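Exercise 7. Given the encoded structure of a 222-residue chain, write a plausible sequence.
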C-alpha cells in the first residue's frame, strides 16, 4: 500500500472503531464495505484494510457466508469482565492501603475523577475517563501482565459501561460517590472506600449492563 492508502486505512480504522465503541454501530449490527465506504466518504480499499484490522482485534466478526457484524456482547462477557475487575481492584485497594499509599492514590485517582466530571454529558467520553481511573487503581501492582489484561479488554469495558449508563447507572450519582470514595481514602478507610467502588462500578454496573442488553434492542443503544 502507498503512504496515502495507509493513512486512509488508519483514518477508516480509527473512525469505525470509535463508532463501534460509542455504540453508533451497536453489537450485532450488520456491516458492509459499501455502507462504510459511503458513510466515511472513502473508497473500499482503505475500508477493507480497516475491517481486517478490526477483525483481528475481534470487534468485527464474519460468519460462514462472510457477512460481517459488530461483535455481540454476551451475558457471559459481562459477568466475566466484572468478576475480573472486582477481583483485581479489590486486591489493588488492599495493596494501596497496606503499602501506606492511600493518600497518594487518592490524589492520583482524583485527577481521573475530575475528568469524569468534565465529561459527564458525553457517555462515551465519560467511559473512557472511567477506564483511565480503573487503570490508575491497578497501577499499584506495577505488573505489565495485569495491565495487559485490562488493555486487552478495554474495548469491551467501554461498550459494556455504556450499556450500564443507558439502563440504571447514573453518571452524576456515580461521580458524587467517587468523591466520597476519595474522602474515605484520605481517612485511611479501605473498607468504606472500596465498598463505594464495588457498589457503583461492579454491582450496579454489572446488573445494569445485563438488564440493558436483555431488554433494549440495538436501536435503543445508539
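Solution.
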Amino acid at each position: 500500500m502507498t503512504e496515502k492508502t495507509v493513512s486512509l486505512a488508519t483514518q477508516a480504522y480509527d473512525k469505525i472503531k470509535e463508532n463501534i465503541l460509542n455504540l453508533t454501530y451497536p453489537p450485532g449490527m450488520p456491516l458492509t464495505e459499501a455502507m462504510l465506504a459511503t458513510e466515511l466518504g472513502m473508497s473500499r480499499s482503505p475500508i477493507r484494510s480497516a475491517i481486517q484490522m478490526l477483525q483481528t482485534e475481534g470487534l468485527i466478526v464474519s460468519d460462514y457466508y462472510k457477512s460481517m457484524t459488530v461483535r455481540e456482547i454476551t451475558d457471559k462477557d459481562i459477568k466475566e469482565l466484572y468478576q475480573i475487575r472486582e477481583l483485581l481492584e479489590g486486591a489493588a485497594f488492599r495493596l494501596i492501603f497496606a503499602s501506606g499509599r492511600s493518600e497518594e492514590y487518592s490524589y492520583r485517582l482524583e485527577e481521573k475523577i475530575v475528568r469524569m466530571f468534565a465529561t459527564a454529558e458525553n457517555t462515551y467520553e465519560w467511559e473512557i475517563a472511567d477506564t483511565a481511573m480503573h487503570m490508575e487503581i491497578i497501577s499499584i501492582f506495577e505488573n505489565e501482565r495485569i495491565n495487559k489484561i485490562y488493555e486487552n479488554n478495554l474495548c469491551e469495558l467501554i461498550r459494556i459501561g455504556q450499556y450500564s449508563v443507558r439502563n440504571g447507572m447514573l453518571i452524576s450519582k456515580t461521580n458524587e460517590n467517587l468523591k466520597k470514595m476519595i474522602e474515605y481514602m484520605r481517612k485511611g478507610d479501605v473498607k468504606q472506600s472500596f465498598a463505594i467502588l464495588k457498589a457503583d462500578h461492579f454491582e450496579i454496573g454489572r446488573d445494569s449492563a445485563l438488564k440493558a442488553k436483555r431488554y433494549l434492542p440495538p436501536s435503543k443503544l445508539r
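Remark. The CA atoms of residues 44 and 65 lie 19 Å apart. Students should compare their own answers with the one above.
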